[in-house]
């Protein structure tokens, strides 16, 4: 079931902040009433597609911050592994220089509650617990508004890296529609025409485009 239009699941978990500091009780609740949040999951530290995404978010971080949006990453690795990866130079496959928080979901409860864990626990014929699938997170991206409600999400399979510019575009769309009351048509980008959510508004927009 999609989380869109529902409250984002609440959690408290360890995270690495500022690229060098472990905090034990990180929560998205600190942003409610203050900032929108782009909360994204990735499969594993020290892998291949993941560092390209994490560094791409960092390269666009100033654009998100200019819009008063927090960026937060999460995987099922430990906070110590996060810290080790954050301390590894890029030329060695690391993500040194990343400053936004990265959450450690070692219990896999955050990924489960957000619907991105790529498998599930079950029992075999002997009554023994086993895991079917991959016990790591898919590439989920969630846009959470200032009320803590999920307004947009997209979930990719492991080989499919996400588009960071589109995450930024969705932030622009959300902020535009909340400020102006208009809706954003297909392929809308900041600076382009939006439209009124009426038959007349749609007709006028289509006639002009």
From TrEMBL:
<feature type="active site" description="Cysteine sulfenic acid (-SOH) intermediate; for peroxidase activity">
    <location>
        <position position="50"/>
    </location>
</feature>
<feature type="domain" description="Thioredoxin">
    <location>
        <begin position="2"/>
        <end position="176"/>
    </location>
</feature>
<dbReference type="Pfam" id="PF00578">
    <property type="entry name" value="AhpC-TSA"/>
</dbReference>
<dbReference type="GO" id="GO:0045454">
    <property type="term" value="P:cell redox homeostasis"/>
</dbReference>
<keyword id="KW-0963">Cytoplasm</keyword>
<keyword id="KW-1015">Disulfide bond</keyword>
<dbReference type="GO" id="GO:0005829">
    <property type="term" value="C:cytosol"/>
</dbReference>
<dbReference type="GO" id="GO:0008379">
    <property type="term" value="F:thioredoxin peroxidase activity"/>
</dbReference>
<dbReference type="InterPro" id="IPR019479">
    <property type="entry name" value="Peroxiredoxin_C"/>
</dbReference>
<dbReference type="InterPro" id="IPR024706">
    <property type="entry name" value="Peroxiredoxin_AhpC-typ"/>
</dbReference>
<dbReference type="InterPro" id="IPR013766">
    <property type="entry name" value="Thioredoxin_domain"/>
</dbReference>
<dbReference type="GO" id="GO:0042744">
    <property type="term" value="P:hydrogen peroxide catabolic process"/>
</dbReference>
<dbReference type="InterPro" id="IPR000866">
    <property type="entry name" value="AhpC/TSA"/>
</dbReference>
<keyword id="KW-0676">Redox-active center</keyword>
<comment type="similarity">
    <text>Belongs to the peroxiredoxin family. AhpC/Prx1 subfamily.</text>
</comment>
<dbReference type="Pfam" id="PF10417">
    <property type="entry name" value="1-cysPrx_C"/>
</dbReference>
<dbReference type="InterPro" id="IPR036249">
    <property type="entry name" value="Thioredoxin-like_sf"/>
</dbReference>
<keyword id="KW-0575">Peroxidase</keyword>
<protein>
    <recommendedName>
        <fullName>Thioredoxin peroxidase</fullName>
    </recommendedName>
</protein>
<comment type="function">
    <text>Thiol-specific peroxidase that catalyzes the reduction of hydrogen peroxide and organic hydroperoxides to water and alcohols, respectively. Plays a role in cell protection against oxidative stress by detoxifying peroxides.</text>
</comment>
<dbReference type="GO" id="GO:0033554">
    <property type="term" value="P:cellular response to stress"/>
</dbReference>
<dbReference type="InterPro" id="IPR050217">
    <property type="entry name" value="Peroxiredoxin"/>
</dbReference>
<keyword id="KW-0560">Oxidoreductase</keyword>
<dbReference type="GO" id="GO:0006979">
    <property type="term" value="P:response to oxidative stress"/>
</dbReference>
């Amino acid at each position: 079931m999609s989380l869109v239009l529902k409250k984002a699941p609440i959690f408290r978990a360890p995270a690495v902040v500022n690229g060098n500091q472990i905090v034990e009780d990180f929560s998205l609740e600190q942003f409610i009433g203050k900032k929108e949040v782009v909360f994204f999951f990735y499969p594993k530290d020290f892998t291949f597609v993941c560092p390209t995404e994490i560094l791409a978010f960092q390269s666009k971080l100033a654009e998100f911050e200019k819009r008063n949006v927090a960026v937060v990453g999460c995987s099922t690795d430990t906070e110590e592994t996060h810290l080790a990866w954050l301390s590894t130079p890029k030329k060695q496959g690391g993500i040194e220089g990343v400053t936004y928080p990265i959450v450690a979901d070692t219990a896999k409860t955050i990924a489960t509650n957000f619907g991105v864990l790529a498998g599930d626990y079950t029992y075999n014929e002997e009554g023994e617990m086993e895991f079917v699938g991959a016990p790591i997170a898919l590439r989920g991206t969630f846009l959470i508004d200032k009320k803590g409600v999920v307004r947009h999400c997209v979930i990719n399979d492991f080989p499919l890296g996400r588009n960071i510019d589109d995450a930024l575009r969705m932030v622009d769309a959300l902020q535009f529609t909340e400020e102006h009351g208009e809706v954003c048509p297909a392929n809308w980008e900041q600076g382009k025409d939006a439209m009124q959510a009426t038959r007349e508004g749609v007709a006028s927009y289509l006639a002009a485009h």
